[in-house]
Amino acid sequence: xxxxxxxxxxxxxxxxxxxxxxxxxxANFGVNLxxxxxVNTDQFTCQRCTNNNGYQGQLGAHIGINDVDDIHAGNTLxxxxxxxxxAVSSDVQYQDESGYQANIQAHQLxxxxxxxxxxxxxxxxxxxxFDYSAIKTYQAQAQSHLWHNNGVLTxxxxxxxxxxxxxxxxxxxxxxYTHDLYNAFVSYSQxxxxxxxxxxxxxxxxxxxxxxxxxxxxxxxxxxxxxGDNWMAQLxxxxxxxxxxxxxLSYNSAPVQxxxxxxxxxxxxxxxxxxxxxTIMSGRFITGRMIQDxxxxxxxxxxxxxxxxxxxxxxxRIAVSSMLTNRLRLAGSIDYSKRDxxxxxxxxxxxxxxxxxxxFKENTTQDITRHTYKVNGSYxxxxxxxxxxxxxxxxxxxxxxxxxxxxDDSLWMKFNVRAFDGFNINLKAEHANRSGxxxxxxxxxxxxxxxxxxxxxxxxxxxxxVELRLNHTPNAWVSVDLTTRYAKDDxxxxxxxxxxxxxxxxxxxxxxxxxxxxxxxxxAGQQWINSNQAGSQSYTSADWxxxxxxxxxxxxxxxxxxxxxxxxxxxxxxYLFSNSISDTLTTATGDSNSFGDDYSYTHSATAYxxxxxxxxxxxxxxxxxxxYFDTDAAQVGVNDIPGMITLGDINHDYNAHQVMxxxxxxxx
Length: 668
Fold this sequence. Notes:
Helices cover about 5% and strands about 65% of the residues. It contains 3 helices and 31 strands. Strand 3 and strand 4 form a beta hairpin. It starts with 7 loop residues before the first helix and ends with a strand.
């Protein structure tokens, strides 16, 4: 017989298998009691265990050149600077044996759009956070014969050039504390927004202007989370304070536009969840108040010095979901929302379309109350087959509205099939209706509009829709996702207003792992929205119609190849095309008139090469290109129409280029 050595752990297990053990004197075979003095552990290694103490992550630096002649390219390239650009990035973690950890993340700091995040502490005790983000959005380079000076708009023969762009910068500081059953948090953030946005005034003819923006929003959050074995709860507070430093606008010594007033909002929320066996119950209660008490522009007929606005809100939700059997699940919820407008009221001098009639009328404060009820069920017919169905109802009551009550009912069904290898099929169908109380039953609104007019969000409507989602994985290197949908809205009782709308489209994604080193993707999506509208110029029955056709398309593809130069070089290419077209055709008394296409398109491409210099260092060269074009007949030059003040022709037609060199260093 071949001889062998037996250590104490093996001997104890053999003894337990061959000997009856008394329940009172049961042996303890815990690993901590084993005698390992004769066990050789020199060759013992953990292949997946790593020491995470110290610094880990990577640091990055970027330098590039932009070739930009239209600031709109900054939305794609991250910066509208024409010339040299620089930025830094990082993702660094630190941890020591005592449990202290820190994290520093940064993305393209130095460009117009970037962010940074810092956190430090112990995850199961206390953590402090700091955040910074910068976002800049570009519309166009504008021209105008109006000059701004502390809120005063002054006409001039010379042209004022400025950027229609908004810059947002946000900083935040937060603290989390965790102890046993509860976690407390508190945070403060402040966001500033500056720049110019397109707007318009009437003085007395319409004038397009670049309105200055200079505001900041301060937000304070605090709360506590508590949890047990089968429950959790949270109590939180949110306070938001908006301060506008922009001035009211005046033109020819007359006020023409009031600046957005300072305001604040407060909200207290209590939410929780409880699980009883296979039933989950959750609830939420929120109370809030919004306050606006800024001074008003004083003009003839205005009896108020300040608005003294106040809106109280109350929201609640109760939801229950229960797994009754292994096949059947039932769920339901009730939502309540109340908007109580407590703002001040006064009598204002009224203007009529026939001129000044000398009448006084009190402003109205609208209250809105919503009730939403949902019930649904899910049943597994067999392995791989599941059906879901539900009914939703939303009841809305509005004071001082064209229609005081509306209710939307929706019946839907979903069918899911997973029974076939490589296939996942989801089909959804929906039928919905909206109806409600009598239209224009309120004395405050019945005289303002054509009695035949129906606002689309208040009118009776019938909706039918269907959606199909398909996921197919024919083999290990190809996966296909396809979604197609169709919906139609019918406003059968509307004579003036939106009468019909149709929305349909598809989205397709194909992912390819063609080999160990080659990966690619292709995606495509299209959407069509067609709507019909009827109107009246004579304040009677409909005497003109409009057909609006909108079309959107997105196409993209990309490929990457790795393994070059002894697995040190990876190259790739990405391409995207998008296009949108809007066409409006009006028909009146037998004559047709097309407003022409309002369309835009963009081609964008990115080519890159990433080279690993060593295990710790890598360099990446990236080239980005964008071709952008749009046209809108409503945009005209500053001198195209005599006497009209515009922002110039702010349509776009440009090519933009960017070359970026990035260096990355890995910390180990």
